[in-house]
Specification:
Elements: E1 4-6, E2 9-17, E3 21-28, E4 34-41, H1 42-47, H2 51-63, E5 72-77, E6 81-87, H3 94-101, H4 106-125, E7 138-140, E8 146-148, H5 176-179, H6 186-203, H7 213-222, H8 233-242, H9 253-257, H10 260-263, H11 280-286, E9 309-310, H12 313-319, E10 339-344, H13 348-361, E11 365-369, E12 372-378, E13 385-396, E14 399-408, H14 411-423
Parallel strand pairs: 9-13
Antiparallel strand pairs: 1-2, 2-3, 3-4, 4-6, 5-6, 7-8, 10-14, 11-12, 12-13, 13-14
């Protein structure tokens, strides 16, 4: 058997796959340490103009070395690939634990929340604001300790700038001031997300959860939620102080640490030795003229400032199977087995957020980068993996096409997914003149909106 090596690492099985990267298990041949190797394709990075975004994410992860943050060891590169060497985390996502147990005990929820606050506070001390804190981005190690991951939407404000202005994050976890477009303090916004996470840990469901994005945002802005009866008084009081819609009066991390409920059995984390952070390996990879061709990018958050890819006339002809534009849009049930598409006249950001909310309400996890979203979870019978990739394209200044493809799972499962997904997105889907007033794939008659 041929063993593949990258530098000092022996590369093994694939343990994860995202929209832009593959993650493999690897072992350091010098120390025997197990690591996760995230492999990115250089040409894809160039094509999607992502070099600055990924370089920022890697630099942030090297900067925040803390026991409750996933550790980034180093970055390597070949002529065609970039290899990010990360701490190997074996306990899975906190999200999966919540799904499995429905809700956690008070003691367990408090312990995870204490570790979350420790990790987030350290990030803030380094000037790093995560901006997408949620259970899907919190991993658990073999000892059950929490590790913050996925810094793809994080911000390092420019010198002299105190407020961030990019609207981003997962709608159910995002702070109300982030939605206001008036600028916000990244640290205060992260605290709100921590409060939503604490609620989810103890309740097993979200405090703000609406299919309609407008209703969801309205509830977030007013902090319109209620705590279940089994919440202890202390936890309920702390959550109330965190989910304060006014960022000026919202509790701070320092005040959270002084809270009586929080302090119970609290053991402050032992910090690692303060190491000098060397970014030479990151600079060597990303300052390569081939990777840097796209030029400098401003502070942005995932899909921000980049816009969906444009489809030119040639692309449209290929997609439409000649010049029959009817095939661009929602098609008959027989053809919807692996791929379909629909068009919206809503802004691309609204389309993306709406799709994310609907997918999550259906019980799936979502991963977003640059107007491309991967939706994944277990199949209906809970025995296999199911995933779908959705990408938004700009057809014209006011028309956006969403292309949906099955990545894993069988065709019948994809068809059922698409039916439910489509029916919950009717408010944003544009029906062209040649279509009947009803979508070709209709809701089952037994179900009512």
């Amino acid at each position: 058997m041929v063993v593949r090596k990258v530098g000092k690492y022996e590369v093994g099985r694939t343990i994860g796959e995202g929209t832009f990267a593959k993650v493999k298990f690897a072992q350091n041949t010098e120390t025997g340490e197990s690591v996760a190797m995230k492999i990115l394709d250089r040409s894809t990075i160039i094509k999607h103009k992502m070099a600055d975004q990924i370089k920022k994410e890697i630099s942030i992860m090297k900067l925040v070395r803390h026991p409750n943050v996933v550790r980034l060891h180093e970055v390597l590169a070949s002529r065609t690939k970039i290899y990010i060497i990360l701490e190997f985390i074996t306990g899975g996502e906190l999200f999966d634990k919540i799904v499995h147990h429905r809700r956690l005990s008070e003691a367990e929820a408090r312990r995870y929340f204490q570790q979350l606050i420790d990790g987030v506070d350290f990030c803030h001390s380094k000037g790093v604001y995560h901006r997408d804190l949620k259970p899907e981005n919190l991993l658990l190690d073999s000892q059950g300790n929490l590790k913050i991951s996925d810094f793809g939407l994080s911000a390092l404000p420019e010198q002299g700038v105190s407020l961030l202005r990019t609207t981003c994050g997962t709608p159910n976890y995002v702070a109300p001031e982030v939605l206001s477009h008036k600028g916000y303090n990244g640290a205060v916004a992260d605290v709100w997300s921590c409060g939503v996470i604490l609620y989810v840990l103890m309740a097993g469901y979200l405090p703000f959860d609406e299919l309609d994005l407008t209703t969801l945002y309205s509830k977030v802005e007013k902090a319109d939620y209620s705590c279940p009866s089994w919440f202890p008084v202390g936890a309920k009081s702390l959550i109330h102080r965190i989910l304060d819609p006014n960022p000026e009066t919202r509790i701070t991390i320092e005040q959270i640490r002084d809270d009586e409920w929080f302090k119970k059995n609290y053991v402050p984390v032992r910090l690692l030795e303060d190491e000098d952070v060397n970014l030479d390996d990151v600079n060597a990879v990303f300052d390569d003229p081939e990777v840097g061709k796209e030029g400098q990018a401003n502070e942005r958050c995932g899909t921000e400032d980049m816009g969906p890819l444009n489809l030119n006339a040639f692309d449209l002809i290929i997609l439409s199977q000649g010049l029959n534009l009817a095939t661009l849009f929602d098609r008959g049930e027989d053809s919807v087995k692996h791929q379909t598409r629909f068009v919206s006249q809503k802004p691309a950001k609204v389309v993306l957020s709406s799709m994310e909310v609907v997918a999550q309400s259906m019980g799936f996890k979502t991963h977003i980068r640059n107007y491309k979203m991967r939706v994944e979870g277990l199949s209906a019978n809970k025995t296999a993996h199911f995933s779908v990739i959705l990408e938004i394209f700009e057809v014209a200044p006011t028309f956006f096409m969403v292309d949906i493809q099955k990545a894993a799972g069988d065709a019948s499962e994809y068809l059922n997914f698409y039916k439910n997904f489509y029916n919950n997105l009717e408010d944003i889907i544009w029906k062209p003149p040649f279509e009947s007033s009803k979508p070709r794939i209709t809701k089952p008659k037994s179900k009512k909106r």
